[in-house]
Amino acid sequence: MRVLLVEDDDGVASALAELLTQHGASVVLTTRGTDALHRMKGCDLVLLDLGLPDMDGLDVLRTLRRASAVPVIIMTARDSDGSVVLGLRAGADDYLVKPVRKAVLLARIDAVMRRLRRSAGEVGATTATTGPVTAGPVTVERERREVLLDGTPQPLTRTEFQILSTLAGRQGEAVSREELMLQVWGTAVVGRSRSLDFFIGQLRAKLVGLPLHTVRGFGFRLDS
């Protein structure tokens, strides 16, 4: 299991990293919220402090949630009922108030990951293998990495294909800008937003008739 640990207290971070490593986890440590958004891809769990030096942890969580469903456990000194409610409503899977006993932390991690595995099993049991996706005059062959326009193969760049493939895998759903950026560039930081707009424009220009719609204030949706 790969854990992203977002904690700006060196002593706390060192102790947590040692504990997690002893229990078989690979730890990615960062002290800043912006760095966390750059390094979240590929992580199985996020342990998130709220008092970060560059941005509030709740803002990190909200951005992360628009990009990924990765489990997040908040670990913070904020112990008011209001803070707990805000954290859970922002998308945290659990909320722990420091100091946290080692046994309690490990038990909470196990519980969150157990729920994730159970949910993944249920989804896997009901989801069929994804085949070609048809969107207007365009057919996306995701496994073959091929895109056809009216039956004619189209030369897309790697980035263009990744964006289209991600949207095709969620056809009919609105996909956030952050999730697309995470899938393509491995980061949900808004600095990539202009690049995303450029490639969306390229897809629309190359694949005339593609039903790719902008969801204002959120992201994009590929219809059938």
UniProtKB/TrEMBL annotation:
Signal peptide range in chain numbering: none
Response regulatory domain segment(s): 2-113
Keyword annotations: DNA-binding, Phosphoprotein, Transcription, Transcription regulation, Two-component regulatory system
Pfam families per record: Response_reg (PF00072), Trans_reg_C (PF00486)
PROSITE patterns: OMPR_PHOB, RESPONSE_REGULATORY
InterPro entries: CheY-like_superfamily (IPR011006), OmpR/PhoB-type_DNA-bd (IPR001867), Sig_transdc_resp-reg_C-effctor (IPR016032), Sig_transdc_resp-reg_receiver (IPR001789), WalR-like (IPR039420), WH-like_DNA-bd_sf (IPR036388)
Domain OmpR/PhoB-type intervals: 130-224
Protein name (database record): Winged helix family two component transcriptional regulator [Actinosynnema mirum DSM]
